[in-house]
Design brief:
By secondary structure, this protein is mainly α. The protein has one domain. Helices cover about 75% and strands about 0% of the residues. It is elongated. It starts with 5 loop residues before the first helix and ends with a helix.
């Protein structure tokens, strides 16, 4: 992963998928290991994961009421 500035990182993260953010997080963990970048990547990954899980949960609940 190219080393991004804080501003670039935040701009790029908005368009990344959950899998892409996870890949960026894993690359940062074995690469530069910048604490604030790891925290930001984890924060974004967690937001995307929770959103996906919530959608799955609600879709499952809707299917159960049919």
């Amino acid at each position: 992963m190219k080393r991004l500035t804080w501003r670039e990182l935040n701009h790029v993260l908005a368009s990344k998928t959950e899998a892409e953010v996870l890949q960026m997080l894993q690359e940062e963990k074995v690469g530069a290991q910048r604490i604030v970048v790891l925290e930001r990547l984890h924060q974004r990954y967690n937001t995307l994961r929770v959103s996906r899980e919530r959608i799955d949960l609600l879709n499952g609940a809707r299917e159960g009421t049919k």
